[in-house]
Task: inverse folding
């Protein structure tokens, strides 16, 4: 018993020497996923044991370890003898600061502002007195999902089926899509019956549309660091509207065809008018310019022997007639009209 008592007294006497002089109050290594552009506090509170006596002051160092910048450790922020020092080469000088004005008051926490993807890495807080205590924070900075686009495909009428689509063009993967029908346009909601997930992640199929499906739908795109959302207002028309659309389409097509026919007829009439005017001019030439009255009737004879066609021009009640002989080779001859 005496031996046991002596050992116990010796152990109690050595315990103050076995205690760490500096102890960081933290639950081990931290892992944080943060969004680009956000700010974050990296905690490093500490305590000094009563046995840590002496003139030496507290020293604090923050070190960034990144895969992109291998090599010797670089201190980007430190505190010693009531002076704060900023390191160089890390790109954090303008965006980092101690949370407390005097870090020697048991808090070596820092704040990082305007986080960038390049800030991803391991951050070590080292508090030095007679011994050294170390705390690590693993930081991953990613981009939030870009604002998505929402739209509907299909005829939004009663009884039909449509697809609500949602797509985000940016953001760190994996991206998760979730649709909800909002209650009065605000807050969360649920999906009514007749809705199923489509093949694409952002697709929502709504079958047999009814008034129950009318309302505001929200698509939320999320990843590990944040979310973005878009909304679409679904307003369903009656079945009769479909019939009206079909009838309107048919009438519009008929009107277009009628206008096209009138245009073709006008072009044909203009062409015939020009041919008649040319034939009358040929008539004047064949009579030596003796005709004084203009042609008022012009007819095209269908008889064309040997590839020759005749244009006949009649002048009022006169018996004078002439014709222009037009050959297939494009050579025109002036001949007298045959007697009727």
Result:
């Amino acid at each position: 018993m005496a031996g046991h008592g002596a050992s116990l007294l010796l152990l109690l006497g050595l315990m103050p020497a076995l205690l760490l002089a500096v102890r960081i109050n933290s639950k081990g290594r931290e892992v944080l996923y943060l969004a680009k552009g956000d700010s974050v506090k990296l905690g490093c509170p500490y305590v000094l044991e009563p046995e840590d006596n002496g003139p030496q002051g507290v020293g604090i160092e923050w070190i960034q370890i990144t895969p992109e910048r291998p090599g010797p450790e670089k201190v980007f922020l430190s505190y010693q003898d009531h002076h704060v020092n900023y390191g160089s080469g890390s790109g954090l000088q303008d965006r980092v600061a101690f949370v407390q004005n005097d870090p020697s008051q048991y808090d070596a926490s820092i704040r990082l502002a305007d986080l960038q993807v390049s800030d991803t890495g391991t951050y070590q807080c080292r508090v030095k007195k007679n011994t050294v205590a170390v705390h690590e924070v693993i930081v991953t900075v990613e981009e939030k999902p870009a604002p998505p686009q929402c739209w509907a495909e299909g005829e939004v009428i009663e009884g039909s089926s449509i697809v609500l689509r949602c797509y985000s063009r940016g953001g760190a993967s994996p991206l998760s899509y979730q649709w909800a029908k909002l209650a009065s346009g605000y807050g969360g909601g649920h999906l009514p019956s007749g809705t199923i997930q489509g093949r694409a992640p952002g697709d929502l199929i709504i079958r047999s549309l009814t008034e129950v499906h009318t309302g505001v739908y929200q698509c939320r795109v999320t990843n590990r660091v944040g979310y973005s959302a878009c909304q679409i207002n679904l307003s369903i028309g009656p079945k009769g509207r479909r019939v009206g659309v079909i009838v309107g389409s048919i009438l519009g097509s008929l009107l277009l065809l009628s206008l096209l026919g009138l245009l073709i007829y006008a072009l044909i009439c203009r062409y015939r008018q020009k041919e008649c005017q040319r034939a009358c001019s040929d008539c004047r030439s064949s009579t030596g310019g003796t005709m004084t009255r203009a042609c008022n009737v012009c007819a095209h004879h269908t008889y064309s022997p040997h590839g020759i066609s005749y244009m006949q021009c009649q002048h009022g009640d006169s018996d004078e007639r002439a014709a222009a002989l037009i050959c297939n080779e494009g050579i025109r001859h002036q001949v007298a009209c045959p007697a009727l």
About this structure: The chain has two helices and 23 strands. The longest strand covers residues 132-142. The helical segments are 2-18, 240-286. Confidence is low (pLDDT under 50) at residues 1-20, 290-340.
